[in-house]
Inverse folding.
C-alpha cells in the first residue's frame, strides 16, 4: 500500500504542448512557445516561487528529443526574462532538419521567495551577532 503525500514540496514547474502539425521555422516555434511560457510563469506568480534553472524540451517529428538548460546565479524574476532565456535556448536549434512536434519549458531549482528572504535575514543576524576576530 502506498500513501499519497499531499503536502510535498514541488521540485519543478513544467508545461509542454504537442502540436497538431510540425513547426519548422524559428518564428513558428517561438510563437508556439509563448502560451507555454505564460502557463509556467502564471504558476510561479500564483505560488510566489522563482527558479534558477530553465530547461527547454524539444521533440522532433521523428520522436527524437533534445533538452537544453541554463542555470543563472539569480532566479528568473519576470516573464520577460523567462521568455528571453527560453528563446536563447531555442535559437541554436535552427534550422531544424525535421519539424518540431512538441515544446516544453521546465523551471527547476525552485525558490520560495518568502523562505529565501527569511533565510537571508537569519544569516545576516548570525553574521552581525558574531564578535569580530582579531
Amino acid at each position: 500500500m502506498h500513501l499519497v503525500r499531499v503536502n510535498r514540496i514541488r521540485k519543478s514547474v513544467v508545461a509542454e504542448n504537442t502540436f497538431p502539425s510540425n513547426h519548422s521555422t524559428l518564428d513558428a516555434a517561438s510563437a508556439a512557445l509563448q502560451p507555454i511560457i505564460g502557463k509556467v510563469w502564471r504558476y510561479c506568480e500564483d505560488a510566489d516561487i522563482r527558479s534558477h534553472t530553465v530547461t527547454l524540451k524539444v521533440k522532433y517529428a521523428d520522436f527524437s528529443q533534445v533538452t537544453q538548460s541554463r542555470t543563472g546565479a539569480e532566479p528568473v524574476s519576470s516573464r520577460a526574462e523567462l521568455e528571453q532565456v527560453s528563446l536563447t535556448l531555442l535559437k541554436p536549434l535552427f534550422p531544424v532538419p525535421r519539424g518540431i512536434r512538441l515544446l516544453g519549458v521546465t523551471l527547476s531549482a525552485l525558490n520560495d521567495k518568502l523562505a529565501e528572504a527569511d533565510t537571508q535575514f537569519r544569516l545576516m543576524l548570525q553574521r552581525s551577532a558574531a564578535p569580530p576576530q582579531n
Q: What stands out?
A: Confidence is low (pLDDT under 50) at residues 114-132. Strands lie at 12-23, 49-60, 65-71, 100-112.
